[in-house]
Amino acid sequence: MRQLLILFSAVILLALPAQAGPVQDILQDHSALITKSSRKTIQPAIDALANSNLPQAQIVLQTWQGKDMWLRIEDGLFFRGNTLPSKAIQLIDFDSGEAAGEADKKALKQLKPNSGVRALIGTALVQFQLIDPDPARRAEALAAIERAPDASTLLPLRASIEGETDLGLKARKIRTERLQTISFDPDEAARIAALDAIKGDLGVDVRAALNPVLTTKRMVFAGDPPADMNIARRLKPGADELTDKQAYDLIVAANLGAPRLTPDALRTAMVNNAADGMVGGVPVAELNTQAARERAYAGLVTAGVVAAAVTDAEAAKAVRAHRFVDVYDEPSQAVTDAASATLDAIETKVALNQALDLGLDALSLGSIYFLAAIGLAITFGVMGVINMAHGEFIMMGAYTGYVVQQIIPNYTVSIIVAIPMAFVVTFAAGVAMERLVIRWLYSRPLETLLATFGISIALQQIAKNIFGTQARPLTSPGWLDGAWVLNDVVSISYIRIAIFVLALIFLGFFLFLMKKTRLGLETRAVTQNPRMAASMGINPDRVNMLTFGLGSGIAGIAGVAIGLYAKVTSELGADYIVQSFMTVVVGGVGNIWGTLLGAGMIGGLQKGIEWLNPSNTLAAQTYMIIFIIVFIQFRPRGIIALKGRAAGD
Amino acid sequence: MKNSFLMRNPSILIFLGLLALFTLAVTLMSEATGAGLISTSFVKTLGKTLCLCLIAIAMDLVWGYTGILSLGHFAFFGLGGYMIGMWLMYERTRQIVETSLANAEIPPTAQEVVDAIGSQIFGVVGSSDFPAVWAFADSLTMQLVLVVAVPGVLALVFGWLAFRSRVTGVYLSILTQAMTLALALYLFQNDSGLRGNNGLSGLQNLPGADAIPQSVVSIWFFWASALALGLSYILAAFIVSGKFGSVIRGIRDDEARVRFLGYSVEGYKLFIFVITAMISGIAGALYYPQAGIINPAEIAPIASIYLAVWVAIGGRGRLYGAVIGAAVVSLVSTWFTGGQVPDLPLGGYTLKWVDWWQVLLGLSFVLVTLFAPKGIGGLIDLLDGIRSPNRHGAALGPDSGSLQEREARE
Q: Which residues of chain B have a CB within 8 Å of the CB of A291?
């Protein structure tokens, strides 16, 4: 029996070469290259497999890349190998996919392609992945190409578009194919066609593909530049883009002229040639002016120690004699023209979208200021009380939100609870402050400022003592994470949209309260004339108390909103107080529309200035404040000024 | 003699006498010239306190007497400090650079020295060129002029713009606060030319005075601060005692009425605003060499609000009140925040004054504004038997806390 078995396996082993399938044939054809496994020579073997149109080719390449391909030494055949628990290798035939017996490790040679070869195999595999029946695999392969564009993937990608069934993937493939065409296709017409086709695409990757096409090199020529050069533009030395000094430096860099004598070089020449306390006939002690050093250098030139320096006149003449051009690295002018036309079109569109994005940013910043200032508009605008502790009410609201979140772990529920809680807490604080301090100071506005400032620093310090100096997180619910992305340029985070909506709700609430309710009527009456209001049966004390409480309560809610996107610290409110006052003052006191306009203007202005000088938000704030100071000159009572009796004086 | 300047302002002689006594006492107790009872750092603290008293006088002039609650005077104070700091830093760096370049093979040119100073000073903000604002940094005279000129010009421009458009009351306060914030934010930038948030440092070292110990230098500055305080007190008393003083108090109490009487209210206000800005600049120029470092955080709006609080606690509308307020609050503040006050055990909780001092201070502002609008200076009225006239509820002026000694005498 055993003999029979041995015989049988011997027959199988002997029979295998005869049965070898097409894959094995290809492998055998390139056996020498495959076993040599060098990045420089391996390409024909990979190509033969990849272009064989055999269904097994992909498996072979994957096996090879995964270092699972084994060579049976005795007959030189290639197999896929599985290491068995017994350390022996189970061989699997590539063509049939069936097991072809086991073998000891010693009888086999594992093929271990190096990383260069593996990369080449990977590239060859892309074409299989791009037409993989599984859309997820196709998307994965496409994403890999998008991440690392490479000349070799262009053709497989192009070939795979035709058979693509998934419409979304097809669109992506077409787009990627165009970008790759621009970057790698040797055919000029195809590149220009692709350049035309992507006009108006806002993607960052499009600009990333276009920019290398348009890179230039600054060059200098003694005469006219060669005609076959793709010249971006000719430069005229002396203007800002190319100063005379830079022009001469270019000449020196191109070895077309001798370097000029810089102060450093002059100094080095002095140091190197000092002898017996003299340099070029000038005593070393006198070399403390530029003129003396130049005199000494002239002496050295006469002595023949150093070469004569290029004079200003010579340098100027050299600059005039040379031509300076920016030359495209890309040789084809048709391509660069098409690329710059496309880039111009895209940039125009990007600029428009950036303006839109900036507008959204400004709107969101404006709504934050509006939220922070609306409470102040009530206390300062309506009651004429300047409340320096307003910022601390905002902070209190934010900390209330934080504490609520510690108790209720569900973020959505905790925010829903925190908003009314913040209102209640700060309303109570506001009413207490009005009863205890502010009502005694109604006739003394400047002293109100001081007293409320005292409360402000006390509250800040108390918050610091309770919650510590480190920032506390106020986490927004999951559905507020992320951003609403219109395209690669325009996006706005949901939290900012929520703040905008909140600001709108407050505006509506405030208008309703002031125009449609009894309290609003009484507040307006007390604002205009407290004594008259009192004689009409309104209790000014009560109205003032409620109004102040309301303003503080709104500050508390604003605190929750601000805390959601900024860290909660004891200085949170102080950061907003000056801007809030600005908003109210710029907008005009005593008018909610004025506050709205003021917030919009300050938000827009700050974003606008930041856009002009994006690296420097500090400067933006400085210029904004200066602008506001100047603005107050022309409209001392704000954008919307109360007129007549309501103005008070 | 009854109407002579000194007789009308008895506080001048008392104040100057006390200041002289104090200066003498500190000098005798200092390490440099006397018994060494008080440390050099405490002499510096006292000298700095005198500078704060000086700016408090300026604040009292502008707020207590003229009724302009400026929240920007610490900006002028800081500017004065920056101006003198530029010279101190430039000159000291120049000496260091010249010493190191003296050993070079060939003598340096003037340009090389300036370049080396530039890279020393501005290396920290990644630059080496001198910005335009340092144009006069090599000249002590020019920088001393700038100590008063820069705050003066800024106050002139700002004041002219603000007063011209009749911005008054809390609006003006907010506007001055905005100006301070704008200046502080501007200086925080690295390319402002004044080393961004690093500020200017090493100001305690006088150029060319390396051999002189800090204990002596601190006494010099102490004397200079005391002298400046004394002179400014006389100047301020002179300004407020005559007809001019009556007009500015009139502006404080009812601006419209003074305008209808034909006075140029804007001119008076502008004069006071500018002169107090200059005094603040001098105070800053004396303060920061004693502090040793100046950075934009010093100018932040909150410092100016504190200044107003000192004056309020000391007693507005009286010059000695401002001095008392600044001295008491800043010294007590130093005492509390320095951790020298023993903690207060309250059963389960130990009250650490370092943490709770701010709360105490804040609440004391509220209490002073509510119950003692005259501030600490009101105690002197009690001693002196001065009582406010009973106007049956009607205030003396819009600012009922700002009384002047004579006018409020019954």
A: none
Q: Are A454 and B171 inside 8 Å of each other by CB?
A: no
Residue B401 has pLDDT above 60, yes or no: no
Please indicate if any CB of chain B lies within 8 Å of the CB of A455: yes
The larger pLDDT score, comparing residue A436 to residue A251, is at: A436
Q: Do A63 and A142 sit in the same domain of this protein? A: no
Domain identity same for A186 and A174:
yes
Picking from B189, B301, B364, the nearest residue to A618 by CB comes out as: B189
A586 and A619 fall within a common domain: yes
Within A24-76, strands assigned E span 69-72
Is residue A63 domain-shared with residue A27, that is, in the same domain? yes
A338 assigned to some structural domain: no
First to last CA, chain B: 23
A287 inside 8 A of chain B by CB: yes
B68 in A contact zone (CB under 8 Å): no
Q: Assess whether A153 and A280 both reside in one domain.
A: no
Residue A125 at interface with chain B, using a CB cutoff of 8 Å: no
**How far does A596 lie from chain B, in Å, by closest CA?**
19
CB-neighbour burial class of residue A218 (10 A; exposed 0-12, middle 13-18, buried 19+): middle
Q: How many domains does chain A have?
A: 5
Residues 456-475 of A with CB under 8 A from B: 456-462, 464-465
Whether the model pTM is above 0.80: no
Q: Where among A91, A118, A145 does a domain terminate?
A: A118
State the smallest CA–CA distance between residue B145 and chain A in angstroms: 26
Domain boundary among A65, A86, A118: A118
State pLDDT tens for residues A96-127: 777 777 777 777 888 888 888 888 887 777 77
Q: Which residue from A457, A582, A622 is facing B185, i.e. has the nearest CB?
A: A622
- B107 CB within 8 Å of a chain A CB: yes
In this structure, are A530 and A420 located in the same domain?
A: yes
pLDDT, tens only, A27-60: 888 887 888 777 788 888 887 777 777 777 778 8
Where in the sequence is the domain holding A277, given as residue range(s)?
A: 261-308
Among A residues 388-417, those touching chain B with beta carbons less than 8 Å apart: 388
- Chain A, window 488-517: residues with a beta carbon less than 8 angstroms from a chain B beta carbon: none
Residue B389 CB neighbour total at 10 angstroms = 11
